[in-house]
Amino acid sequence: MMEFIDYPQDKIQAKLKQAREFEAKYGANDTSRGWIKWCTDINYRKREWQWRQNIAKWHANKNKI
User: In this structure, which long-range contacts are made by residues 16-21, counting pairs with CB atoms below 8 Å and at least 24 apart in sequence?
Assistant: First the structure.
């Protein structure tokens, strides 16, 4: 399995700024709250990455059956 490598901090901060500006303009919603959580919690980012890896493995194995 591949090893988790976090995104560059400048890209994370840019996305956080974008999400906060969205919330200031339009109000919070599930997507903006999710992005803010993703930007502020490295464990959340790691779990999300692991989830995507498992989905890819499931899809690859599903086609073998």
Answer: 16/40
